[in-house]
Amino acid sequence: MTMLGTHERPLRVAVIGAGPSGFFAAESLLRSLVLCRVDMFDRLPAPYGLVRGGVAPDHPKIRTVSKTFEKTADHERFSYFGNVTVGRDITVDELRRFYDALLFTCGAETDRPMGIPGEELPGSHTATSFVGWYNGHPDFRDCVFDLSQEAVVVVGMGNVAMDVARILAKPVDELRSTDIAEHALDVLAGSRVREIHVVGRRGAAQVKFTLPELKEMGEIPGCAPVIAPADLEYGPACLEEINTPGMKRIAEVMEEYSRLGGDGAARRVRFRFLLSPVELRGGGRVESAVFEKNRLTGPAFGQKARGTGETEEIPCGLVFRSIGYRGVPLPGVPFHERDGVFPNTAGRVEDNGRTLPGLYCAGWIKRGPSGIIGSNKPDSLETVKNILSDAVSLAPCPEPDTAAVLRLLGGRGVRVVSFDDWRKIDAAEIARGQAAGKPRERFTRVDEMLAVLD
Ligand code: NAP
């Protein structure tokens, strides 16, 4: 019986998805005494997932984690295969021929719908598309956002909603020196957006955003954060909720904002609470968003929004729904439809409660879209620990040969992008950016990235 995890026969792990959870997992696999070879696949030529395509351009520090990922990529037992779509260019079954373990770190690539009438009207968008668009993600390059509208509604009270609201609220000159995509800068420069309503279905004590994001909202030149004092009158359960280390400062900052008023500001970000979206209205495009007013029921830390039957209509020309991401199914892997994740226990993928040996997951496709980038590290480590402890019992793959994988992909006409290739694309983006006084100007189409290599 072949012993996996030795110099003679390293454990062969395919990591599918080159975002933070994939890189955290790869780093830990490569450090293990159980010798591993890690081949990482991503559907885009460029690695780093949400670090590249999700983090807001005015948060450059968060992106610096990619420096650590570069070190992992330098490891002699690591290879990167970008521009390869698993499930299309190579199937999960085919990968199993070449790898002892498959680790899916493919994230949550889509958004949760609101499921209300009018959601598909022009002017109604997902936050994910706006975020992808301003970050130059090829999937969203051709999105069109009509920023000639004065009033915008952002549904949701998480950090993504805050990113969207902040990018809409910032004077464009504040963004020029960031790595925001040039096409987004052009559109934002002509923006007529004045009122940005950030709308939560629960109250001020249940916001999901974090303190730095809230504080930034008060530091935008020409923009006032607005909160009605009545929204900060807490009942006993809410008082318990804001009396926690995480919420205390957030509640204090909201209190400060409630005293500002916002009159005379060029732009306002209005925080609105206890409103659930029920309909988007408009003849041909969004003209207003209708919300049902809620009250909270249930115990502290488990309070739910209950509709009162009363509604409020907010006139607006644009709506961004920012109510959470969702994983997408991958042929050959079980999928939990309700939660939008791969069913698993501690990262071991399961089918109807039965573990599928050799299939693992980590990150948002494992636990759902929660936490900051660093939260993926312990999550990935948990899965890696299980992969390593399973190594003795895993069935060795029949063809432990990375060159054979590349031959198969090459035979299908797939232009595989190596990490060295990526470094060339990276250098070209940085050079483009320097010319414009920015840290980088991303290529926003896959063809443009590949053209750098030709
Ligand atoms: P999130 O933090 O889960 O927030 C989702 C928001 O949508 C919540 O306010 C939620 O309200 C609301 N919501 C859910 N379903 C709804 C519905 N049917 N109708 C109305 N509202 C609804 O999600 P996110 O903002 O997409 O962020 C995802 C993760 O990425 C989070 O962990 C976030 O912290 C992280 N992130 C971090 C940063 C950063 O560190 N700077 C930036 C971006 C994202 P309830 O609370 O009532 O469910």
Description:
The protein is of the alpha/beta class and 454 residues long. 32% of the residues lie in helices and 21% in strands. It contains 16 helices and 18 strands. It has helices at residues 20-31, 49-53, 60-63, 66-73, 92-98, 127-134, 159-169, 182-189, 211-217, 236-242, 245-258, 364-367, 376-390, 402-411, 419-435, 446-453; strands spanning 11-16, 36-41, 78-81, 101-104, 110-111, 124-126, 151-155, 195-199, 223-226, 267-272, 275-281, 288-297, 304-315, 318-321, 325-326, 344-345, 348-351, 354-361. A 7-stranded mixed β-sheet has the order 3-2-1-4-18-17-16, sandwiched between helices. A 6-stranded parallel β-sheet has the order 6-14-7-8-10-9. Strand 11 and strand 12 (288-297) form a beta hairpin. Helix 1 (20-31) packs across helix 4 (66-73). It is globular, with a radius of gyration of 23 Å. The mean pLDDT is 97. The structure holds NADP nicotinamide-adenine-dinucleotide phosphate. The site of NADP nicotinamide-adenine-dinucleotide phosphate (NAP) has 26 residues, from helix 7 and strand 11.
